């Protein structure tokens, strides 16, 4: 054992120190005082003065032993717990933890891509995505007064200063000032360098034609979801399909760019082309608006269809809305009511009934029926629209004359030639009560009575004979007349041509059902001849076009009341026309809801609109005259 001594406080000699020590301790030497007395035991070796062997440990008391055992036990239990936890993490939960780590370190990235554009049949843009900005204001960051900020922004935003000042005073932060600022306007604001303004960039759907195609195209809301028209029904086609890419990210959440493939941001140039012609659409709307204004009509619609392909060349409804600002219009305008609303077609359905009667063999074109002008069927009175004016009926009429004069009584007699059950079967065969299958959303299927009601009450077949007692949509009526024009074959109307690239090459086209035959070509041609006489000499004279053969039929139907019966003055006027009659290609349908005035009939309200639309169609499609025009020689005086 090494023994250390405290240092001397001064540097006296060793002898002086020893003497000083002897004097203090009774004469003993310093070495005797400082060194312990050691003795050797023959059995145990060296011992100190207490009898304890040098190097022997002190005995451990029972309390200390318990403490040691407790500490040892805690350490062993802790070690065992750590070992078990290590097994749990490395073996039991390893797959789950590995997956969780991958989820934290990787992200499925799907970039924002614009919706595909929509173009008309001429390639003119109808709908397209373009960059826009949302302007936010945070007044607590303004370096100028709120009034000064309003003064600077008012001319750029084209809004009153006081309006902006009140807006800035409404909150200290997060004020949305404008949602759809164009790129140019956003750049002007950014160049001002004003503190407290925030521009958030996003894509916005833009409709350059405004309300011209709204009936068909519809609109997209702020969540970029189609809410009406093609924007809704063709949502999956208009959205570009880009698969998400798994990429890694750093600890701070930043994307590691090395993981991105070269095709990640690739976008196709496909465009959804529709069948509508913008030129015809404008001409149609102009003719419709003028006539609706003259007669104070509630609403109106015009549709033009290619009877051979089913392509809709024009579809206009008024009033309409601007899809760029859809939020400013009534929700009722978003419905394409020629598809969603059904009505009783009236006399425009008479040619379809005549075709049924001829095709079934119940009557022939040369048959004659007696028109009394007014009759009663099962206690219900039925009369012609001109019964009071003429003071009676027209007497004996051929089938052609019944169509020409639009005789209700004559039609009742024609359809009485059919057994009611057979008549009902034909109504089902031509598709009453069924949708047309057009590629626009929310189409109604119309209404038809049950077989029991139809057969059990004689008045049901009688009223159906002149277009009452059931309902169709305007699109269904257009499709049925298209079948007459297409030699008896019915096609499915549609407005989508397909996806085309920038070079005009087709990438995808919709697969349409095959035409369905309703009538024989002979029956269809016979009915068209009757409709042509109705335009030449009957109620459709106002639809005549010099040099062209036009087939058509007017309709003036009373509107049914929810309480039963019909309104006294509310009516729907309509006109359907087919041209050219010698080689039918196009059908035009005009429907005007609730025109005002004593002279508001299909012949006075709807037929002139059809004539204007057909004149535009002739010019656009280059339809040649049916017969040489007679040029009058100038008179010499």
Q: Could you give a quick summary of the protein structure above?
A:
The chain starts with 13 loop residues before the first helix and ends in a 16-residue tail after the last helix. Helix 5 (146-157) packs across helix 6, helix 13 (350-360) runs antiparallel to helix 21 and helix 16 crosses helix 19 (459-465).
Record keyword descriptors for this entry.
637 residues, alpha+beta, five-stranded antiparallel beta sheet, elongated, disordered N terminus, disordered C terminus
Give an account of the 3D structure:
The protein is α+β, with helices and mostly antiparallel strands and 637 residues long. 35% of the residues lie in helices and 20% in strands. The protein has 22 helices and 24 strands. Strands 4, 5, 6, 7, 9, 19 and 20 form a 7-stranded mixed β-sheet that branches. Helix 16 (408-415) crosses helix 19. The longest helix is centred in the first third of the chain and has 31 residues, at 62-92. It starts with 13 loop residues before the first helix and ends in a 16-residue tail after the last helix. The model is unreliable at 1-17, 24-48 and 629-637 (pLDDT under 50).
Identify the overall geometry: elongated
What is the arithmetic mean of pLDDT?
A: 85
Major sheet description: 7 strands, mixed
**Which structural category do the helix and sheet elements fall into?**
alpha+beta
Work out the strand percent. 15-25%
Number of H- or I-type helical stretches: 22
Low-confidence stretches: 1-17, 24-48, 629-637
Tell me the radius of gyration.
47 Å
Portion of residues within helices = 25-40%
Total beta-strand segments:
24
Distance between the amino and carboxyl termini? 160 Å
């Amino acid at each position: 054992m090494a023994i250390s001594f405290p240092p001397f406080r001064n540097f006296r000699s060793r002898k002086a120190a020893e003497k000083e020590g002897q004097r203090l301790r009774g004469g003993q030497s310093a070495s005797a005082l400082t060194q312990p007395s050691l003795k050797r035991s023959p059995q145990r070796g060296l011992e100190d003065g207490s009898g304890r062997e040098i190097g022997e440990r002190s005995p451990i008391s029972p309390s200390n032993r318990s403490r040691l055992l407790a500490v040892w036990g805690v350490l062993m239990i802790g070690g065992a717990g750590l070992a078990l936890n290590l097994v749990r993490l490395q073996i039991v939960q390893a797959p789950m933890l590995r997956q969780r780590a991958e989820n934290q370190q990787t992200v499925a990235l799907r970039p924002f891509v614009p919706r595909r554009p929509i173009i008309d049949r001429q390639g003119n843009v109808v709908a397209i995505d373009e960059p826009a900005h949302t302007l936010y204001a945070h007044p607590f960051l303004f370096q100028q007064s709120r009034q000064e900020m309003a003064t600077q922004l008012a001319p750029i935003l084209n809004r009153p200063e006081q309006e902006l000042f009140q807006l800035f005073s409404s909150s200290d932060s997060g004020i949305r000032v404008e949602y759809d600022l164009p790129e140019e306007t956003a750049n002007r604001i950014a160049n001002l360098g004003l503190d407290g303004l925030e521009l958030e960039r996003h894509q916005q759907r833009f409709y350059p034609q405004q309300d011209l195609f709204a009936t068909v195209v519809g609109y997209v809301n702020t969540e970029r979801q189609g809410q009406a028209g093609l924007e809704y029904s063709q949502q999956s086609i208009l959205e570009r399909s880009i698969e998400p890419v798994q990429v890694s990210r750093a600890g701070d959440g930043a994307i590691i760019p090395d993981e991105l493939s070269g095709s990640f941001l690739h976008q196709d140039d496909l465009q959804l082309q529709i069948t509508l012609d913008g030129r015809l659409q404008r001409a149609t709307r102009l003719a419709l608006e003028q006539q609706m204004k003259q007669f104070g009509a509630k609403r109106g619609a015009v549709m033009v269809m290619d009877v051979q392909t089913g392509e809709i060349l024009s579809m206009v409804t008024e009033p309409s809305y601007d899809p760029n600002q859809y939020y400013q219009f009534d929700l009722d305008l978003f419905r394409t009511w020629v598809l969603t609303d059904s009505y009783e077609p009236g006399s425009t359905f008479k040619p379809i009934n005549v075709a049924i009667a001829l095709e079934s063999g119940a009557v022939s074109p040369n048959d004659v029926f007696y028109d009394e002008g007014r009759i009663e069927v099962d206690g219900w009175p039925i009369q012609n629209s001109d019964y009071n004016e003429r003071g009676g009926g027209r007497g004996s009429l051929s089938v052609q004359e019944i169509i020409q004069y639009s005789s209700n009584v004559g039609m009742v007699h024609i359809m009485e030639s059919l057994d009611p059950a057979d008549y009902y079967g034909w109504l089902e065969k031509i598709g009453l009560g069924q949708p047309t299958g057009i590629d626009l959303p929310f189409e109604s299927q119309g209404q038809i009575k049950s077989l029991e009601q139809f057969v059990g009450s004689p008045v049901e077949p009688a009223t159906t004979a002149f277009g009452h007692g059931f309902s169709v949509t305007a699109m269904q009526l257009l499709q049925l007349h298209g079948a007459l024009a297409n030699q008896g074959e019915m096609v499915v109307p549609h407005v989508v041509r397909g996806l085309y690239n920038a070079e005009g090459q087709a990438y995808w086209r919709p697969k349409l059902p095959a035409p369905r035959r309703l009538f024989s070509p002979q029956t269809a041609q016979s009915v068209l001849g009757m409709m042509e006489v109705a335009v030449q000499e009957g109620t459709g004279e106002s639809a005549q076009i010099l040099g062209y053969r036009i087939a058509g039929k007017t309709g003036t139907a009373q509107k049914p009341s929810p309480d039963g019966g019909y309104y006294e003055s509310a009516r729907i006027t309509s006109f359907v026309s087919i041209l050219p009659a010698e080689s039918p290609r196009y059908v035009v349908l005009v429907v005007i809801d609730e025109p005002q005035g004593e002279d508001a009939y299909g012949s006075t309200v709807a037929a002139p609109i059809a004539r204007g639309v057909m004149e535009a169609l002739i010019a656009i499609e280059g339809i040649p005259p049916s017969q040489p025009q007679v040029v009058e020689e100038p008179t010499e005086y």
